[in-house]
TrEMBL record:
Compartments where found: Periplasm
Keyword Signal assigned: yes
Limits of the SsuA/THI5-like domain: 55-243
Signal peptide limits: 1-26
Organism: Mesorhizobium amorphae CCNWGS0123
Taxonomic lineage: Bacteria, Pseudomonadati, Pseudomonadota, Alphaproteobacteria, Hyphomicrobiales
Protein name: Nitrate/sulfonate/bicarbonate ABC transporter periplasmic protein
Subcellular location, principal: periplasm
Length: 331
């Protein structure tokens, strides 16, 4: 079994174990249960570092790895977690529980990839099966939007959590068309040069990952939320200024030990590319991010209503961002 396969199996087992034990009592003051709806990889170092720094400042964070954005969102709705990671616009619009985004972590940088033996361009995917991260995820939104843009109708859309898992499936041939992040696009190019084609996408500035919680949690735990948002903002700024510091963070906090020391070069290159693209959010998002999200997720069909008619306050609580920017300054 490959390292990646072992990691996927362990993460899935962990998710199952957590899922079976999620009738947890509500968190006490100073506690924060964060539902991570993905398999942590090198693209998670910024967020994982911010969490470790929040712990250093006294927030008792419990990280719950669920490897599916749907499960993370459901954990918030069911009071089985306090904070989720994702971009749950569909859920926010349709859930009876008032959930709000309160910080943007990163903007979309996904790459639709096809096996060149079967497909060459977008029109070749008409009626064909594809795989994305999860229902309601940014990966799904990108695929749906590009299908609409190119006038095609996708076949079955499968949900396969973990960009590395999808990369591995592409290499093995069990997937012929999927979508991966920048790190796994680079890996595909290295591992199988010429085998895959990256299909073009429009410039995107919508939310890839953000923090969200119920309105009540944000109101009743403002001090802890402020610490997490501040550390997320500081970490994003430091990595953007000096991408190689992501490796230092990984080693200092012993993050992703299963990847081994040979991943440091890949981590450095990934964050150098992310910094150049400006995909790490320096000021937390807020109203400007919401406007981009409304335009993108509406076009992708994941939220209803004309973007201009949607209200920021129905989807976002920007109070923690405003307090963090007032304290740290704006970048």
């Amino acid at each position: 079994m490959t390292k990646l396969s072992r990691r996927a199996v362990l993460a899935t087992a962990l998710a199952a174990a957590i899922g079976s034990a999620m009738s947890i009592e509500a968190a006490s003051a100073g506690d924060m249960r964060i539902a991570f709806g993905d398999l942590p990889g090198i693209e998670s170092i910024q967020t994982l570092t911010a969490i470790e720094r929040a712990k250093e400042r006294g927030v008792n964070v419990e990280l719950i790895v669920l490897n599916d954005e749907d499960l993370a969102a459901q954990a918030i709705v069911g009071n089985q977690a306090d904070v989720g990671i994702g971009a749950p616009y569909t859920l926010i619009q349709k859930a009876g529980v008032p959930i709000r985004l309160f910080a943007q972590i990163s903007t979309l940088r996904f790459f639709p990839v096809v096996n060149s033996e079967f497909y060459k361009e977008w029109k070749d995917l008409d009626g064909q099966d594809v795989a994305v991260q999860a229902r309601g995820s940014g990966t799904e939104a990108v695929m749906l939007l590009m299908a609409k843009t190119h006038g095609i109708k996708l076949g079955t859309v499968s949900y396969v959590p973990g960009s590395e898992v999808r990369r591995n499936a592409l290499i093995q041939g069990t997937l012929k068309a999927s979508i991966v992040d920048a790190a796994n696009r680079r890996a595909l190019e290295t591992e199988a040069p010429g085998k895959f084609i990256v299909l073009p996408v429009d410039d995107l500035s919508a939310t890839d990952e953000g923090l969200f919680a119920t309105a009540d949690y944000l109101k009743n735990n403002a001090a802890d939320v402020d610490i997490l948002v501040e550390e997320l903002m500081k970490t994003g700024r430091e990595i953007t200024e000096t991408p190689a510091v992501a490796v230092e963070f990984r080693n200092k906090y012993k993050l992703l030990p299963d990847l081994g020391a040979d991943a440091d070069t890949e981590i450095s290159e990934y964050y150098k590319e992310s910094a150049t693209a400006g995909s790490l959010v320096l000021n937390g998002g807020g109203a400007e991010a919401a406007a981009d999200d409304f335009a993108f997720f509406s076009l992708a069909g994941q939220i209803e209503g004309e973007p201009a008619s949607l209200k920021v306050e129905d989807f976002w609580d920007v109070a923690a961002i405003d307090r963090a920017v007032a304290k740290l300054g704006k970048k």
